[in-house]
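Need residues for this backbone.
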C-alpha cells in the first residue's frame, strides 16, 4: 500500500511509468484474475455433432456426476453414433482399410491424464483413455497394448481377427484404392463446472487414409487437448500434423495465462502457426477454448468452423469464420 501511495506522490511522467510497471508485475503474477462471466457450467466442443455430446455432458453434471464422467459420457455419445464417419469405429479407415482410434482425457483438479493411440476394435477409446488415467501408473498406451488394457478393464470391443488379412495385404504391397483419404474430424470437448473446475477430452479416428501406425494430435497432451486447472482448456481439430508441431492447445492455454480471452488466444495460436509454418494460413486447423471464468472462443485457419456450446440454460451450434490473415 505504502508503495502505491509513494507512486501516487511522484511527478506525473514518473508516476505513470511506475504505475504501468506495477500493473505489468500484477499481470505476470500467476494466473490472470478474471471476473466470472457465466455462473453455471459451460461446455464447448468441435463441430455440430458436438451439440449432442455437450447435452449429455451438461445432463451428467446436472444429475450430480463428476466432471470426468461428464467428459466421458459426452464423448461416448459421439463415438457411439460415429455419425459422419470421423469419430469411433465408424470413422474413416487408414490407408490399409481399417480404423485406428486415438483419444485422451485430462482432469484439471487432480492434474491426471490418460491417452490411447492407434487402438483397434475398441468401441469407446475415451473410456479406454480414462482407464489408463485412473487404473494405470502411465499416461499413454498405444496399439496392441492399449487394446489389451482396454479389454482387461471391460471396455466394449469388436473382434479384430478380420484385420489380419488387411494388414498382411498392406505389408505385401496390395494397397486398397478405395480408402477415404480426404476426410477428418474429431471431437474435442472442454467443460467447466459451476465452481470453475475444468476437464476435457478428445477422440478421433484421425485423418482418413493415414499410414497404419500414424498418430495425430488428438491423443497428445498439449497438441489436441490441454487442460490447466489454473487457467482454462483448449482443444483442436483439423490436420493433426499442423497442430502437434506447434503444441497448439498448450499454446492457447499459455496465451490465456498471459491474460488473453479464449477467443483472442485461439486466434493468436492460428496467427503464430501461420507465421512460422511454410504453409502460411493453409493449415486446416481449428481450435476451441474456454477459461476458468466461463468465457469461450474458437478460431480456424482457412475455413468456416462450426462448433457447439452449451450451458445449463441453452445449447447451440455456432460458427466462426476463418481468421483474417495478418
Ligand atoms: C488428426 N486432428 O488425427 C485429427 C483429425 C481431425 O478434423 O481432427 N480432423 O489429425
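Answer:
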Amino acid at each position: 500500500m505504502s508503495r502505491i501511495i509513494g507512486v501516487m506522490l511522484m511527478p506525473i511522467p514518473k508516476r505513470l511509468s511506475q504505475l504501468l510497471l506495477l500493473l505489468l508485475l500484477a499481470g505476470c503474477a500467476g494466473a490472470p484474475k478474471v471476473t466470472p462471466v457465466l455462473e453455471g457450467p459451460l461446455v464447448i466442443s468441435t463441430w455440430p455433432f458436438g451439440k449432442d455430446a455437450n447435452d449429455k455432458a451438461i445432463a451428467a453434471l446436472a444429475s450430480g456426476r463428476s466432471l470426468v464422467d461428464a467428459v466421458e459420457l459426452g464423448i461416448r455419445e459421439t463415438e457411439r453414433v460415429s455419425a459422419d464417419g470421423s469419430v469411433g469405429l465408424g470413422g474413416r479407415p487408414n490407408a490399409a482399410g481399417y480404423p485406428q482410434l486415438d483419444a485422451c482425457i485430462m482432469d484439471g483438479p487432480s492434474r491426471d491424464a490418460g491417452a490411447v493411440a492407434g487402438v483397434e476394435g475398441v468401441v469407446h477409446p475415451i473410456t479406454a483413455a480414462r482407464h489408463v488415467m485412473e487404473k494405470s501408473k502411465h499416461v499413454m498406451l498405444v496399439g496392441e497394448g492399449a487394446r489389451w488394457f482396454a479389454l482387461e478393464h471391460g471396455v466394449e470391443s469388436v473382434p479384430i481377427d478380420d484385420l489380419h488379412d488387411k494388414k498382411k495385404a498392406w505389408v505385401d504391397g496390395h494397397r486398397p484404392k478405395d480408402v477415404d483419404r480426404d476426410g477428418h474430424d474429431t471431437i474435442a470437448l472442454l467443460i467447466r463446472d459451476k465452481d470453475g473446475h475444468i476437464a476435457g477430452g478428445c477422440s478421433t479416428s484421425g485423418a482418413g487414409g493415414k499410414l497404419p501406425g500414424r498418430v495425430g494430435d488428438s491423443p497428445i497432451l498439449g497438441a489436441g487437448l490441454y487442460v490447466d486447472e489454473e487457467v482454462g482448456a483448449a482443444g483442436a481439430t483439423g490436420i493433426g500434423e499442423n497442430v502437434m508441431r506447434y503444441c497448439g492447445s498448450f499454446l492457447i492455454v499459455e496465451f490465456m495465462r498471459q491474460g488473453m480471452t479464449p477467443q483472442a488466444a485461439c486466434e493468436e495460436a492460428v496467427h503464430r502457426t501461420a507465421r512460422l509454418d511454410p504453409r502460411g494460413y493453409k493449415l486446416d486447423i481449428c481450435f476451441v477454448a474456454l477459461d476458468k471464468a466461463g468465457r469461450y472462443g474458437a478460431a480456424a485457419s482457412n475455413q468456416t468452423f462450426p462448433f457447439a456450446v452449451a450451458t445449463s440454460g441453452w445449447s447451440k451450434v455456432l460458427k466462426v469464420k476463418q481468421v483474417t490473415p495478418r
